[in-house]
Amino acid sequence: MSTSHDHDHDHSEAGPVTDRTHDNSWSANLEKPQHAADADLVVSQAVDAIEHTGSGNHVNLVTHGDHGHPAEYLYDALEERVDTDTVGWEYVQQCGCGGHVTRVYVD
């Protein structure tokens, strides 16, 4: 018997983290329920957020606490997918809700 819950997670179920390039500093909310269930979605939308951040600005990646500290899964993935000559990041803090904030600077 099949139910509506018998399926693989599909990134297309999650709306995009942004639909425009931000010419200011901003925050990307990557701690929704679909992010808690899918670390790959967090990584792909983090890269998308970085790519949609204008030069000279930063984006705060607010990641779900269920995946642990971003150094455990996000930073290596970012190193593989973004130009580290023009992008740098630093850990900011853990939120009261358990999530984590990483600030990514775009040169």
Offer a few descriptive terms.
25% strand, four-stranded mixed β-sheet, disordered N terminus, 107 residues, 3 helices, 4 strands, alpha+beta
Query: What's the gyration radius in Å?
Result: 14 Å
Stretches where pLDDT falls below 50 for ≥5 residues?
A: 1-12
Strand count: 4
Q: Determine the mean pLDDT.
A: 90
The fraction of residues in strands falls at 25-35%
Q: Given the structure, what is the number of helices?
A: 3
Judged by helices, strands and strand pairing, the structural class is: alpha+beta
Strand order of the largest sheet: 1-2-4-3
In words, what does this structure look like?
The chain is of the alpha+beta class and 107 residues long. 23% of the residues lie in helices and 25% in strands. The protein is built from three helices and four strands. The protein has helices spanning 33-36, 39-51, 74-81; strands spanning 26-30, 57-63, 87-94, 100-106. It has a four-stranded mixed sheet, covered by helices on one side. β3 and β4 (100-106) form a beta hairpin. α2 packs across α3 (74-81). The relative contact order is 0.20.
